[in-house]
């Protein structure tokens, strides 16, 4: 329903951000407050500039601060959507949290690497977006909220690309979210990925300090590229690379030389690892955006465990300081089976 003014005409509303919502992304804030509004419409009003923060335009991933004033345009909410959500909660209580009902958000649990009252860490599979958005109805966080209806608070601390697997951190309390995100911003976490690239990576090439720029293809799809540091849209991006194991060509692997890399990101830019490695002539195996498409086709056709049908990028290790007790936590997500076959003979990485 539309919110009318005194003359009966639809009007915008202003929301002041409470301290409990400080640090939350704008899109998640709106989805929680605009009950019954389709997510596609939420993202549309953000992109169009109809949503304002302190009278200025904002992006979906803008982080809110306590006291911010968010302007919401007149939107039509659906009472029926709320009724469906309530009906789904009843069905979940009746049939269990694993049920997927009526085409609404499917509930799903994921392998848990660590959990307490403050933090939840899961091993995200490839092919699943971390949250719903453009072209994605439901991501990891929406599915987990449906699977855990008794949890009042579940928020993503950081993101992984849809095709990247591995450690994903979720906060279970507002204060934990704020403290963990601050660690990520201040580069106090240690995130290491495993990536497979064609060719033998030069062991001396250890630091990639190349600015990145986001841009859109003619069809509206997002891409990222390396630009000069003086470019007006340049964002500094730093990636550290260590050769885990060279994988020379053999009769069992006839498609040429490969390298298994340990990659540490010091900045969390969109597609950072993928673009940095590709810019050096070593695109990640299986990458459908920045990769070697002919090589990817060849990898897909390899027999048995040598076949690669996804991007070989895995968030393997994450170190952070626990937001409650201050202890240093190390989380590991082993390579999933669909990647293990390509590097089965490589010794386990050192911690």
Please characterize this protein's 3D structure.
The protein has 351 residues and is of the alpha+beta class. It has three domains: 13-72, RNA-binding S4 domain (Structural Genomics Hypothetical 15.5 Kd Protein In mrcA-pckA Intergenic Region, Chain A), CATH 3.10.290; 80-180, Pseudouridine synthase, CATH 3.30.2350.10; 189-343, Pseudouridine synthase, CATH 3.30.2350.10. The protein is built from eight helices and 16 strands. Strands 5, 6, 7, 8, 9, 10, 13, 14, 15 and 16 form a ten-stranded mixed sheet that branches. Strands 1-4-2-3 form a four-stranded antiparallel sheet, with no helix packed on it. The chain has a two-stranded antiparallel ribbon with strand order 11-12. Strand 15 and strand 16 (328-332) form a beta hairpin. The longest helix is centred in the first third of the chain and has 17 residues, at 79-95. It is globular.
Domains, number:
3
Work out the helicity level.
Answer: 10-25%
CATH-scheme architecture of the largest domain: 2-Layer Sandwich
Q: Would you identify the regions where 5 or more consecutive residues have pLDDT less than 50?
A: 1-9, 79-104
- Report the count of strand segments: 16
**Overall 3D geometry?**
globular
For this structure, the CATH topology of the largest domain is: Pseudouridine synthase
Mean pLDDT: 85
What is the class of the largest domain in the CATH system?
A: Alpha Beta
Distance, first to last CA = 55 Å
Strand composition percent: 15-25%
Instruction: Summarize the helix and strand pattern as letters.
Output: EHHEEEHEEHEEHEEEEEEHHEEH
What is the SS-derived class? alpha+beta
Radius of gyration: 22 Å
- Tell me the name of the CATH homologous superfamily of the largest domain: Pseudouridine synthase
The main pleated sheet reads as: 10 strands, mixed
DSSP helix count?
A: 8
């Amino acid at each position: 329903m539309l919110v009318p003014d005194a003359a009966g005409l639809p009007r915008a509303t202003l929301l002041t951000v409470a301290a409990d919502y400080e640090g939350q992304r704008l899109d998640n804030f709106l989805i929680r407050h605009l009950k019954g509004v389709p997510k596609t419409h939420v993202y549309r009003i953000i992109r169009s500039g109809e949503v304002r923060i302190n009278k200025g335009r904002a992006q979906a991933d803008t982080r809110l601060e306590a006291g911010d004033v968010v302007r919401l345009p007149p939107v039509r909410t659906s009472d029926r959507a709320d009724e469906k959500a309530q009906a789904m909660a009843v069905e979940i209580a009746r049939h269990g949290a694993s049920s997927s009902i009526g085409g609404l958000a499917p509930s799903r649990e994921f392998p848990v690497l660590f959990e307490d009252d403050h933090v939840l860490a899961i091993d995200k599979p490839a092919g699943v977006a971390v949250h719903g958005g453009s072209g994605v109805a439901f991501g990891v966080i929406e599915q987990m909220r449906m699977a855990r209806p008794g949890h009042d608070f579940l928020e993503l601390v950081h993101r992984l690309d849809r095709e990247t697997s591995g450690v994903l951190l979720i906060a279970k309390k507002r204060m934990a979210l704020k403290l963990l995100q601050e660690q990520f911003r201040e580069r106090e976490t240690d995130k290491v990925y495993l990536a497979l690239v064609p060719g033998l990576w030069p062991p001396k090439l250890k630091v990639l300090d190349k600015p990145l720029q986001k841009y859109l293809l003619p069809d509206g799809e997002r891409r990222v590229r390396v630009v000069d540091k003086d470019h007006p849209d340049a964002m500094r991006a730093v990636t550290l690379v260590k050769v885990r194991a060279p994988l020379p060509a053999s009769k069992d692997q006839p498609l040429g030389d490969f390298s298994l890399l340990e990659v540490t990101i010091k900045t969390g830019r969109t597609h950072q690892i993928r673009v940095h490695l590709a810019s050096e002539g070593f695109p990640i195996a299986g990458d459908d955006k920045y990769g070697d498409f002919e090589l990817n086709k060849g990898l897909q056709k390899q027999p048995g465990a040598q076949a690669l049908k996804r991007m070989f990028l895995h968030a393997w290790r994450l170190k952070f300081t626990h937001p409650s007790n201050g202890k240093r936590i190390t989380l590991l997500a082993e390579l999933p089976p669909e990647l293990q076959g390509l590097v089965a003979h490589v010794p386990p990485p050192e911690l």
